[in-house]
């Protein structure tokens, strides 16, 4: 692990246990076993580190949405939504500390969150709305309210990672485990098949 990766990993660990406001650059440097100057070199300051985390999360997340829309346009809206669910869950599991931190920070009213809402989240809204509209136009999805369907879908995809403590202590499941991802994906596939898709059932291969 290089110094930049060590800084990011240490920062996310501390942000999770102490909160962003309760974490200092010195604490991050000590955990990462680097000099504070290294943090300044890679991220400028703590605000720069925060902005990097948001960009790192949303750039990959938006790429997943873009690919889903392309699949819907070129092949099938059903296939696109299933692929989106699979990739978002896989992304959240593989990058659990980052996803957990960013999703939690998005619940706080701050300047950077308002900036993210006006950029990345508006792009998210556009791609998800486009995907639903393509599915309805092609007759693959039931006619639904795009607004409320997106809210429900986003809640299903983020809740386990936003409420990781609740998941582990109340239900004894761990969102960062591959087993959880597999079982949760299976349930989400079944849910969209029963409530959103209009025609054939999910192929057993998808499960």
Shape: elongated
Multimeric state of these chains?
A: single chain
Q: Helix segment count?
A: 11
The CATH topology of the largest domain corresponds to Tetracycline Repressor, domain 2
List the domain count as a whole number.
2
Query: Mean pLDDT across all residues, rounded?
Result: 94
Describe this structure in words.
The structure is a single chain. The protein is mainly alpha-helical. The chain folds into two domains: 1-44, Homeodomain-like (Arc Repressor Mutant, subunit A), CATH 1.10.10; 51-206, Tetracycline Repressor, domain 2 (Orthogonal Bundle), CATH 1.10.357. Helix content is 76%, strand content 0%. The protein is elongated and about 60 Å long. 27% of the residues are buried. The model is unreliable at 201-207 (pLDDT under 50).
Please give a quick description of this structure.
With 207 residues, the protein is mainly α. The chain is 76% helix and 0% strand. It has 2 domains: 1-44, Arc Repressor Mutant, subunit A; 51-206, Tetracycline Repressor, domain 2 (Orthogonal Bundle).
What's the SSE blueprint?
Layout: H1 3-18, H2 25-32, H3 36-43, H4 46-74, H5 77-94, H6 96-105, H7 111-118, H8 120-137, H9 146-162, H10 164-171, H11 178-195
Helix pairs in contact: 1-2, 1-6, 3-4, 4-5, 4-8, 5-6, 5-8, 5-11
Spell out the key features of this protein.
disordered C terminus, Arc Repressor Mutant, subunit A, 2 domains, mainly alpha, 207 residues
